[in-house]
Amino acid sequence: MEFKRFEALIEMFPQVQIFSTEGEDLDRVITHFLNQRENVSTMSEAMQRKIQQALAPFFQQRFISLHDAEAPLVRNLLLDKKFFLQTDRYIDDMAWPLTDPEKLGEALNIADLAEGILDRKLLSLSNGELRRVLLARMWMEKPEWVYFNDLFGGLDPEYRAHLAGCVADLAKRPGLKVVVRLAREDELLPEIPAFVYADKTFTQYAGELPKAAATPKFKKAELKDYEIVDLRREAKDERRECGNDNSGEILFDLKHVNVRFGDTDVLKNLNWTVRKGEHWAVMGENGAGKSTLLGMLTADHPQIYNNDITLLGERPGHGLNIWDHKAKLGFFSPEMALQYREDLSLLDVLCTGFTPNLCRAENITWEEKAKAREWLTYLGFEDTSISIRKISPIDKRLVLMARAAIRPPKVLLLDEPTQGLKGEYREKLFHLLQLLSTETTIIMVSHYEEEWPPCMTHLLRMPKFSLN
Ligand SMILES: Nc1ncnc2c1ncn2[C@@H]1O[C@H](COP(=O)(O)OP(=O)(O)OP(=O)(O)O)[C@@H](O)[C@H]1O
């Protein structure tokens, strides 16, 4: 069955899941349709980012304990009669849809959050926690239409399984119209009619839908402390051959590291050593402290000063120069892509990767330019002169990841690099990382078990100590 128009599809299938690698185009089509409807509840990364941007123009601000008494709490977002997103530098004059306080218990259950979350400041939440709070809110609204844009993006595996069950139940509610957009085919839900969107056409999914929601390979309840897995021992094949520089130079050394905010333990007695030639995947449930950990490695997090940490041979407060340190790293996170403001061509963006700065680079050599051009061509960008502002947010992410890696840096830090990336892009990225692994040390945060290039040598699993 094929549909050209979303109107026709939704009329026939009021509960529908749509998988597409052309996510933004599909989102535009659905949003255009829903903007003309009333009582719509939407969950999307864009909403999450809007809140984060409104509350803090610079993401690092989040690392600082927030004293602002006016900063909105989760309680305000979920329970205020009329909630406006407002700070002293941001005003949203549209009130958010009304919520039903009676549904709070059910909603927190859906979001798998404890009641203590209500007193947390919105800005202090991790990406996944904020997503889950927004999901809780949807369950407290009274919509006729529900739209989940990239339902599982940024969520940990166990919660993804829980959410899949909740959405399947929601889709059974009589009269409710439910639209789910999925970025990955392997995340299709059971029972809900499925379509694939490509070339501006919705085609019925030809494969078989799963019988039940996928179960996570790993259960967080089993994890009581930090766990290190030697991936080389697990796979005795080609992994041993790559990134095998056993010079033993210690790049990062963290001893009994603790990070707390008020009475929330984020990192608790973490001992972790990263040596040159190792490549680490970092996993952990939403709020486990993965971004906090990366913030420490980049020296952005102020709590590096009250911990025993060595960063590339230097100690914070004892000779570490932050800018020299950052110049040795390549860093990418989805927030960075969001906050990137430069109006440069793709080629110029990639060339900034040879310098410590984000703005236009001077004195780029002919060889560097040629390498940047070669990388862009490999990633599928034919016209390297177009502005980064003209490409889609997902393409922008890919270009900024390439920028972080091209030099190559001494250490490449990637926070959820595959979030929202289509399979073909993931493969290209992993191929690049595999090639780079002989020259740089890679540390990569992921929410997908075993979804990393074969060069990865270790996995750090992080538990979540606080219950919100
Ligand atoms: N300034 C702050 N004040 C209070 N709590 C904070 C602050 N900054 C971070 N936290 C808390 O620290 C915990 C870890 O956050 P972090 O962003 O490191 O998690 P994460 O593992 O990256 O999560 P996700 O998978 O959702 O991205 C979260 O529970 C978060 O709410």
TrEMBL record:
Classification via InterPro entries: AAA+_ATPase, ABC_transporter-like_ATP-bd, P-loop_NTPase
The protein's name is ABC transporter related protein
- Matches recorded under Pfam families: ABC_tran
Signal peptide bounds: none
Claim: Nucleotide-binding is one of the keywords in the record:
yes
Residue ranges of domain ABC transporter in the record: 4-231, 252-468
List the keywords (alphabetical).
ATP-binding, Nucleotide-binding
Q: Which GO terms describe its molecular function?
A: ATP binding; ATP hydrolysis activity
